[in-house]
């Protein structure tokens, strides 16, 4: 979700006004995914690098997370959304951590949209914490080093239990992954759009989904193997 600051600057507003509008986009996209029956959505809300921003901006973002979560959690729950946070939450203040824990507990058994919010998340952090847990399991004799395979590894990633992402969307014009789900995007289709996050609406979401639907996913195979009828 990128482009909040530029959206605000173009309107001579403070960056935080862009973040507020960004929250509305986020709500729209969650609704759009739930309505379409999409199984899982992971939103990159705050990276482990975003702490480097000006102090006031960081604290506004934290306040926005808390307020939005408090305001929306009932409706999410009533719509069957299961909410989970991925990332190192130990850096957040008590109020936010408590709200996160309560929101996860409330929605834990829901079977609708599986919604992940990546907050204080980094793809490399995720790979490192999974590696650490694997090393500990080896040290305890639970698994042999020779038996470490993709499934043993992905089981220890913060996204375990979820399907790998099919589609990766980045708004705001930059064409990079910026330490989002690194292991998990191995086969994801990438969609980059210049549209700024506060302007990303249901029509934009549909454009990305339509483009995704036209792509042929071969997973290393040939076109004839995956679509024999067109051979
Ligand atoms: C939203 O957009 C990203 C976060 C919430 C951290 P930016 O704040 O990065 O917006 P730009 O890139 O300055 O336009
Ligand atoms: Mg940005």
Features:
231 residues; alpha/beta; Undecaprenyl pyrophosphate synthetase; two-stranded parallel sheet; 45% helix; binds 3-methylbut-3-enyl trihydrogen diphosphate; binds magnesium ion
What this model shows, in words?
The chain is of the alpha/beta class. Helices cover 45% and strands 13% of the residues. Strand 2 (82-86), helix 4 (94-107) and strand 3 (114-121) form a beta-alpha-beta unit. It starts with a helix and ends in a 5-residue tail after the last helix. 27% of the residues are buried. The model has no long low-confidence stretch (mean pLDDT 96).
Bound molecules: 3-methylbut-3-enyl trihydrogen diphosphate, magnesium ion
Radius of gyration: 19 Å
The number of distinct β-strands equals 5
- Determine the fraction of residues in helical runs and give it as a percent range: 40-55%
Strand order of the largest sheet: 1-3-2
CATH first level of one domain: which class? Alpha Beta
* Name of the CATH homologous superfamily of one domain: Decaprenyl diphosphate synthase-like
Taken as a percent bin, the fraction of beta residues is 5-15%
Q: Please work out how many helical segments DSSP would assign.
A: 8
> What's the end-to-end separation, in Å?
39 Å
What's the gist of this structure?
The chain has about 230 residues and is α/β, with parallel strands linked by helices.
């Amino acid at each position: 979700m990128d482009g909040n600051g530029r959206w605000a600057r173009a309107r001579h507003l403070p960056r935080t006004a862009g973040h507020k509008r960004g929250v509305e986009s986020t709500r729209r996209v969650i609704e759009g995914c739930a309505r379409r029956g999409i199984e899982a959505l992971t939103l990159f809300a705050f990276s482990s690098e975003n702490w480097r921003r000006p102090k006031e901006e960081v604290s506004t973002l934290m306040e926005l997370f808390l307020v939005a979560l408090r305001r929306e959690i009932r409706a999410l729950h009533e719509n069957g959304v299961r909410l989970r946070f991925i990332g190192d939450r130990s850096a957040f203040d008590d109020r936010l951590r408590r709200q996160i824990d309560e929101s996860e507990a409330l929605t834990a058994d829901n079977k609708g949209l599986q919604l992940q919010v990546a907050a204080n998340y980094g793809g490399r952090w995720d790979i490192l914490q999974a590696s650490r847990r694997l090393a500990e399991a080896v040290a305890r004799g639970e698994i042999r080093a020779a038996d470490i395979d993709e499934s043993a590894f992905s089981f220890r990633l913060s996204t375990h239990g979820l399907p790998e992402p099919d589609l990766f969307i980045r708004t705001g014009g930059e064409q990079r992954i910026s330490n989002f789900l690194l292991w998990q995007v191995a086969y994801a289709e990438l969609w980059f759009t210049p549209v700024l996050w506060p302007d990303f609406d249901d029509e934009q979401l549909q454009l990305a989904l339509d483009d995704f639907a036209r792509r042929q996913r071969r997973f290393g195979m040939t076109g004839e193997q995956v679509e024999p009828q067109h051979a």
